[in-house]
Every structure is written in C-alpha cells, then in structure tokens.
Amino acid sequence: MKDEDKSKEELLKELAELRQSLPGFEESYERHKQDELDVIEANKQSTFQAQQVPLALIKWTTDFKVTLWSDMAEHIFGFTCAEAEGCSGFDLIIPESNKELAVDLWRQLLTREGGHRTISVNTAKDGTRLLCEWHNTPHVADDGSVVGVSSLVQDISGRKQAEGELKEYIDELVLLVKDRSIELMREVERHRKAEDELQLFRAALDSSADNIFLTDRATMHFVDVNDAACKDLGYTREEFLQMGPHDIKPDYTLHTMVREFDEVLRSDGEVGVIETVHMRKDGTQFPVELLMHSIMSGGRDIIVAIARDITERKVFEDKLKHLSTTDELTQALNRRKYLEIMDREVERVKRHAAPLSILIFDIDYFKAVNDTYGHDVGDDILKAVAELVRDNVRKVDYFVRWGGEEFVVIIPDTELYKAIIFAEKLRVRMEEHVFDKVGSITVSVGVSTYEKDDTQETLIKRADRALYQAKQTGRNKVVSTEDLNADNVPQA
Q1: Reduced to 3 states, what is the DSSP secondary structure of residue 214?
Q2: What φ, ψ does residue 458 adopt, rounded to 5°?
Q3: Distance, CA of 350 to CA of 240 (rounded, Å)
Q4: SS3 category, 237
Q5: What is the pLDDT of residues 38-86, one digit of tens each?
Q6: Model-wide pTM > 0.70
Q7: Fold agreement (53-160, 208-314)
Q8: Which fold has domain 53-160?
C-alpha cells in the first residue's frame, strides 16, 4: 500500500515503530533541535547586548566590511544598520586624508601587531568630522588566524562642541601632524647627514698612518683614537677609552699633561711640533714627533694630538751626527768634535776646579810605512792604532784623530802625573803590538795639563811642544810639559 493511501493514524504508528527501531535517534533529534534554539537565542542575546552597550559596537569581516552595526554606531555616525551592513569602512566612515593610516592600522590588526587602541578622525553620514576613540579586538580562530574584528567606538569630539570649533581643532591637528612630520623628516635627514659626516671622519681618521688621539681636557681621558694608534701601541680602542695621554708617556705625570694641554688652549688652539716618547702596551718606548691643537665639540675642549713615529729618522739623524763628528777611517772623533768637547771641558774645569789633561801622539816614521807598503797598508795601521787606543782608554775619555798620523786623547779629572803614567802605558802597548805586514811601530807622546787661565788652544799648544821635543830627542818616548825647558825647546 502506498503512503498516500494510508490514514494519519497508520503513518504515526509507523513513525513510532521506526523511532523505536533506531537506537538514540530520539535523543539525537532532540539535541539537534535544542542546538538550533540555542543559536537563535545567542544571536538574539548578542544583538540585544550590542544595542545596550553605551559605546558603539561594530563588527567587521577581515576585508573591513560591516557585519554588525549597533544603535550607538547609528547615533554616532548617522548610518542605519541597513545602510551600514555589508559596506566597507573605508567608504563609510574613513575620510580620504586618513585612508592610508587606516589601511596600515587594519593591517596591524589582522597580523596581530597592534592597532588595538587608536584615536582617529572619522566622517559621519552628513560629512561632519568626528574625533573617535577606537578599541579593536581581533577574533582569532583555533589555528591562530584572524577571522574578524570587533570595535568599540566612542565619539570624544564633544557633543556640545560647535561644529566650527571641532573642524578648526581637527584642521589644526592635521596641520600639526603635517608640520611635525616635516620636522621629523628634517630631523631624520640631519641625523643621516651627521652619521655620514661621522663615517667620513672615521674613515679619514683611520686612513692616516699617523697616530691620532682625541682627549677631553676636562676628564683627561681619550674620547677617540684611530686604528694606527691601536696598531702601533698595542691597545684596543676600548682599552684606550679607559686611559689618558699620561698613560702612554713614561716621563709625564697627569699634572704635567694638564699643564701642557692648558698651554695648547692658551696658544689659540695650536702648538708647534715637539719631540717626545710614547710607550707601548708591552713597555717598549719609541720617539714621536707630536703636533697638538684644540677644538670645541659639544661644549667640550678636545685636544687633538697627531703623533708620528720618528724612529727611522732618529736613527738616520744619529748616523749623520756620527758622520759629522767622527773620522771615517779610524772611527775616532774628528777635530771639529774635539773643539766642541774642549770648550765644554775647559768651562767645567773653571767652574769646579777639576783637573784636566790631554796627550797628543804621533806614529814614528809613518811616511816610511806609506812609502814602503803603500797607503792601503798605512790606512790599516791607522785603524789598528785607533783600535788599540780604544781598548785602553776609559769610557769618560775622548779619543780624537788630530790629523794624518797624529791623535789626541782628552783625559778628564786626571792630574798630570796620572796622565803621564797612562801615556807611557799606551806607548809600551804600541811598541809591543805586532802589526800586520809592518810588525812593530812606535809612537812619540806629548802630555800637558790644565793650568790657570788656560784655553783649549793654549793647552793643546803646550802638549804639541812636548810632542815636538819627544820626536827631536829620539822618538818612542813620552814628554810632558814638566820636561820642557822653555828656553831650550824650539816652538813647534
């Protein structure tokens, strides 16, 4: 029999039998029916609560379209729920001037980076500008994605405030933001230029082969150094910033450095080149040429010191000095240096009444050596004689090549009798020494000592007279001024 031919009672009976034959069907049916009622009630309750909230409640889709528009939202913005729902917030309440900012805030909400509380200028239906405070809450799904946003909105522009005053305030705010934006852009540009200049300064500083030190006069600490200073002295820049210039100058105290820096400040910012000594981290020292000048930076007096290692130059200068005062062949002092030393020694004797003696000796028959063996052998003899003398003089004595085969020894703090003893000892050493190719040679020696009112000229002249007498009376002997008979000895 077909269902349409069955009576109502028969159909109800079959439905009852079917429910009994399916376990749990009744319970599932009732539960599904109750869930539908709960959803309907929740929607009613949500709508009711939205209308009761004192702030405007607006719900949005992720593409910023309205899904819920409360009565307070209609009151603030003037759009009805029917007009607002489904519309884009950009077209509805965001003024053209604020759309770029609104897009960025919406992006922050969807990415959960921010935008939860904002104050912004919005537009009502009638075109009125409103200042609104927004509290935004993203709706986050179980997988962490944002599926929508709820916003609580309050009009904080003041309902009793005249439209003209509000517009003026908003316009001033827009101008203020604009001016501040321009000022910030300028400030950023100034900072960028300052950073570029700082990088340029640092590059110039570190490209210099000289050591450059910047010192704060008030603290007497380094505020910067260049790479060359770090490399040459062995400190890191961080270590230098804990130090001051007195830490690298072995002969300077802090007080001394303060005095020198103040002199720089008093001298219109610069002093001439000076020579000093710097000390490395390992304790070794080296000479430097130093130029200092001052600059003002941030209200501080900064002393800029540029130091150049002059070790090689000093070695070269010492060589030049040695060449200018030393006989090239024998390495004895030359006559020019003799005059410098004797002027100083005579003055010392006059001040302190100390004894001073000199001796002058000549190699006997040296011309015959040159004629017999040649000048090369003669030069070897002169060098050997010089070496022998250096082995026998004291460190305080001065050994001079007077000219040709004549030599002078200056003997400070020595009386005449002691000088005679030394001269005789030297004569014997010469006579006993066996010289290459020549064998034995002898010397004649004249000795004199300082007398009152002597000059270096009179002192050497008396020694030369004594030498002349030694040569005239047989050679290979020592004659002193005491041995001279002024009436009988001819002048040299």
Answers
A1: strand
A2: -70, -35
A3: 51
A4: helix
A5: 544 544 444 444 445 569 999 999 999 999 999 999 999 999 999 999 9
A6: no
A7: yes
A8: Beta-Lactamase (3.30.450)
